[in-house]
Amino acid sequence: MRREILHWFKTNQRIFLLTSILNLMLLVLIHFLVSSIHLNPSSPFFNFLHGLTIVLAASLSLTVITKGIVALAINFLGIVLIYGGVVIPSFELAMVGQVYYKAATGNITENALYTGSHGLFVLGLSMIIFSFIIGFKPTVLYTKNRPAPMEAYWAKYPIWHKELQWAAIKNGSLVKLPLLMNAKDRYLLWRYAYVLVLINDTLFLVPINSFVPSNSMLIRDGLSGKLVGVDKYIGYFA
């Protein structure tokens, strides 16, 4: 049942995204309507706008509900800020006037109250848009010269498969890969999933227990002299 619900959300993400954009436009209208009219919190019209704001704001989370906890958390924070920017100033009209706080006095005006609400609303709107970017197009946030992931680096090398071993017999006898290594290489071999080997003028990623032609050459780091290959365990650097 849970998988079916998640699948339904994923298949209707485009609809949710378009609906969220429409809801954001409606929330902008409600915000400026409340800010310009300065509605009384006890009026029926304000109660209607209050309820509509809650429904519209809550529906924004449906767009990123399957996009991970980060996008969902940022979206929820934006919803709270938007809600505060729309309804909280109306509830705090009673605070307008002189206030005394921690041995200091100040004067709160309606203009200052609603100016602050604009800041809350714009910040909330920015958080909602940011959550959409993280959920749907995170590459927008990547730097221009962002390093490519290691998977992309190793993907350019073919993997040495068993069926290639028999084709290589014509070029010489096969030996087990560790026999081409020194004692230090074999001691560190447990760290590798694949080792980069030059076989018949082609670089291959070879599993550590594979057989290779005896004339194969292990590729080593120019500075450390260690074998070049894919780490088997995250956190170990061979």
Large-scale geometry: elongated
- C-alpha Rg, in Å? 31 Å
Low-confidence stretches: none
Q: SSE string, helix = H, strand = E?
A: HHHHEEHHHEHEEEEE
Word description of this protein:
Helix 2 runs antiparallel to helix 3 (44-59), helix 2 (13-37) runs antiparallel to helix 5 and helix 3 runs antiparallel to helix 4. This protein has helices at 2-11, 13-37, 44-59, 69-91, 110-136, 150-154, 162-167, 183-187, and strands at residues 97-101, 104-108, 174-176, 192-199, 202-207, 211-213, 217-218, 229-231. The longest helix has 27 residues, at 110-136. The protein is elongated. With 238 residues, it is of the alpha+beta class.
Short description:
With 238 residues, this protein is α+β, with helices and mostly antiparallel strands. It has helices at 2-11, 13-37, 44-59, 69-91, 110-136, 150-154, 162-167, 183-187; strands at residues 97-101, 104-108, 174-176, 192-199, 202-207, 211-213, 217-218, 229-231.
